[in-house]
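Exercise: predict the fold of this chain.
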Amino acid sequence: MGVAALRGLALALVALPGSVLCFALTLVSLALIPIGLGLVTTPWVLTGVRAYADWRRVLAAEWGGVRIPRAYRPFPSPSPSPWGANPWTRTFGMLRDPATWRDLRWLPVDMTAGFVTALLPAVLLLYPLEGLAITAGLWRVFADPMGGTYWYGFVPVTDQATAFGAGALALVLLFFAHFLTVPLLQVHFRLTGAVLGSSQGELAERVRVLTETRRDAVDTSAAELRRIERDLHDGAQARLVAMGMDLGTVEMLLDKDPEKARQLLAQARQSSADALAELRDLVRGIHPPVLAERGLGDAVRALALRLPVATEVTVELPGRAEEPVESAAYFAVSEVLTNAVKHADADRIWIDLHHTGEMLRITVTDNGKGGALIGAGSGLAGVERRLGTFDGVLAVGSPAGGPTMVTMEIPCALS
């Protein structure tokens, strides 16, 4: 009971100033968008609002057992690069997120009804203490020195007898406080969950998106299996069959024509070397050994070393992600780099990998001619589908004339 009251008091002291500050800053920042200043400030203000809402979600789970899912759409945030991020894309990407407007609806509710429901448990416990203090004789201090009446609840306290009446009322309130303090705090958390939680429509949209990404993942896996089967059939398998036929011929010619047999043996040796090289390339296309052994950072560095364009790689990863995430990120980077080399006419590429806020963020920037788009049939569309399997997102900034900046984000934790 006492713990619930103290927690409610702490929440009340935070809810009113915190929610008022976040709401006021948001309104001011949104009002500044037409003059351009809001395009810079709004992403940071909304990020702060999300952090505040996330902190309240944590308190609701830890103090009230009310779990409020976090349903923000992943969206690339400003990341280090030679030219910086696109504030227009960032601002309106966040404003298109229904969760952003749910946060803004919650702030005025939290500063009013949320404040009251958080304060009630503390009041229900502390107010009876005042009544007991009046009964102990402090009514003389509280009463008007000019002979006025001091009211405790609905009890007028004018002498010691009425002070005992105030004490009786305090005991009744304390009795109810024993049973109601914790449920009243639960009301606060349930109110927070009702406003911050996702609606049924948003949950249905989430299910639809997950269904699509699952279907894309299945289609991609089937296509990858067909590619592996085709490469094995047309490449290594054909060479191994030819090598077996050569060895059969060598067996027949070994006594009759040793010179011809030696030529066929040399040819079979070359065929085996070619088959081994093709198998290694195939394995590298499935899961590069350097990725499994050294992690994503070193795998991307090795990828950059094979490019015909000068490439600078910056890696800030304190740990490793799960293998499927690393694999998806590696092949996404590989596809983006392939597009840059083939189509951008760039002479320099920058790659930045870092992990912040439970998000793996990768930026690939080139100084080419620009004009890259995410569309059906393009390599970037395939990258978007690959990242979508992991709730990842792809953002492309590529004005005509360049430069091109491709930002990829995948929610994940590092070990």
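Check your answer against the key: The CA atoms of residues 53 and 103 lie 7 Å apart.
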